[in-house]
Design goal:
The longest helix has 16 residues. Helices cover 28% and strands 27% of the residues. The protein has an 8-stranded mixed beta sheet, sandwiched between helices. It has 211 residues and is of the alpha+beta class.
Amino acid sequence: MQSELLRDRPSRPPEERLRPDRLRSDCPVLLSQRLVLRAPHEEDIDALAHLANNATIATMVSRMPHPYTAKDAADFVRRSKNGEIGKCVYAITKGENGEFLGCCALETHAEDEGTLELGYWLGEPYWNKGYATEAAHALIDMAFRTRQIVQIDARCRVTNIASRRVIQKCGFQFQGSGMVGSLAMGGMMPVEWFRLDRKTWISLKSWGEMR
């Protein structure tokens, strides 16, 4: 579970957050074996507010407030549509019935256009079912196939064993550790930093070998 899904970076000026190349025109709907990744909709607001209002999730995602209200959810949907909170923000839904499970996103580094950052979170009822790994695979494949990027970064709180396992199953390699701010905790939290470069991604014969 990552940092940039539910709050935009405060240091980034509005004119940059709203520039045209940050809109959703290059963020196609993604399909995997069990999931559909698509833009967040107003119809997601109730489910989003219900699932995100969870202290366990909020303390693992640096910019998620807690409590998380329907107003927060509506604001998130609006800002995701306007391209204010990530290059590509997706709702993770079940392919069979459209059920909302959580969110994932790609964000361009402010100082390095060749690097994207992967973020994701799932509602607690959907943990330990392989959904996070499946969604991450779809997002990573799309990023490397459609963008001239060099690498993708991912970070997780050091105590978040499940998220670390997802990151490692996707082929990311440990780079180091550091501290990031936590909105829900009102302070800093230690995180681990991982990276997947294009060469490593190409060398993976199939995602299935890594499950």
